[in-house]
Design a protein that fits this description.
Elements (H helix, E strand, L loop, with lengths): L4 H19 L2 H17 L8 H26 L10 E2 L7 H6 L6 H6 L5 H12 L4 H8 L3 H14 L10 H17 L2 H7 E10 L11 E2 L1 H13 L6 E7 L2 E8 L2 E11 L2 E8 L10
Parallel strand pairs: 2-7
Antiparallel strand pairs: 1-4, 2-3, 4-5, 5-6, 6-7
Helix pairs in contact: 1-2, 1-3, 2-3, 3-7, 6-8, 7-8, 9-10
Keywords: Membrane, Transmembrane, Transmembrane helix
Protein name: RNA polymerase sigma-70 factor
GO molecular function, one term: DNA binding
Length: 288
């Protein structure tokens, strides 16, 4: 298949976005995108009316195969599994790759909820709800008929809650996180109760590589106890900042001169419902 430089630049962000949302892994998504282009280049020349759809089908099918292969690995994973955080710079919205990445369906909360779906449910939900593919296009991509795709989407939407625009308001959520930090530092329980649900859950992902809670931490007292316990043991050069992670504000924590962990949030109705602390060094960005 002949793919021009312009087409490569055009399709690559979309293919990466599908792969990353399907797998929750930047490394795996990048590998699959490169593998897809390589296979496309090696294909015998043939008439393809829609290169975009064809490449999306290749990436989606490769992701479906990967999901089936990693299911056992996920079951054997040490502790909770969080998607790899995507640390984004504040960039111009005219950049097409940024526009794709800022669309709904990239937040850590959404990606983690996707773990409750089967591979086909995940693919149909993403292609329809996030990328606006038609049912006929989705049917071609995953090899199902249109009625089956509609049924698959219906099942998927019953399994996970919809994360709407209100829950993804960046500036509002950043304000809530700043208030949480201030209340946490001053141990203002009244403010913390206003900002965090009593049944809040924290998922701490160390992947067996670093020390982390091996089970989800449930309830406000238990979550605060864990966080205060961590703070008591941090080195003198500890510092943090709020950064754009998966198109949402998150607390990026540095210790000993390197990135130590990223704390992301699921905020609904202006209160923190879930927290995701990712410490597995294999999932953290290499640079500041």
């Amino acid at each position: 298949m002949q793919i021009s430089t312009e087409e490569y630049q055009q399709f690559k962000p979309l293919l990466f976005s599908i792969g990353y949302r399907m797998l929750g892994s930047m490394v795996d998504a990048e590998d699959i995108v490169q593998e897809t282009f390589l296979k496309a280049y090696q294909m015998e020349e043939q008439k393809i009316d829609n290169k975009k759809a064809y490449l999306c089908k290749m990436v989606t099918n490769r992701c479906l195969d990967e999901l089936k292969a990693v299911r056992h690995k996920r079951e054997q994973y040490v502790g909770p599994w969080n998607p790899a955080p995507l640390l984004q710079e504040e960039t111009n919205d005219s950049d097409p790759s940024e526009i794709i990445l800022k669309k709904e369906g990239v937040s850590i909360a959404f990606l983690r909820m996707m773990e409750h779906l089967s591979p086909n449910e995940r693919a149909v939900l993403l292609l329809r709800e996030v990328f606006d593919f038609s049912y006929s296009e989705i049917a071609t991509i995953i090899g199902k008929n249109e009625d089956n795709c509609r049924k698959i989407l219906s099942r998927a939407k019953q399994k996970i809650p919809y994360i709407g625009d209100e829950s993804l308001n960046y500036e509002k959520n950043k304000s809530i996180i700043n208030r949480f930090i201030q209340a946490f530092q001053t141990q203002n329980m009244d403010s913390l109760l206003e900002l965090i649900y009593e049944n809040v859950t924290l998922y701490s992902d160390g992947g067996g590589k670093v020390r982390a809670a091996v089970r989800p931490i449930v309830s406000l007292p238990n979550v605060l106890s864990l966080l205060y316990g961590i703070i008591k043991k941090v080195p003198k050069d500890f510092y943090f900042e709020i950064r754009n992670v998966n198109s949402q504000p998150a607390i990026v924590i540095y210790m000993n001169g390197t990135l130590h962990s990223i704390l992301s949030f699921y905020i609904i109705k202006d209160k923190i419902k879930e927290m995701y602390m990712t410490m597995n060094p294999d999932k953290l960005p290499l640079s500041k």
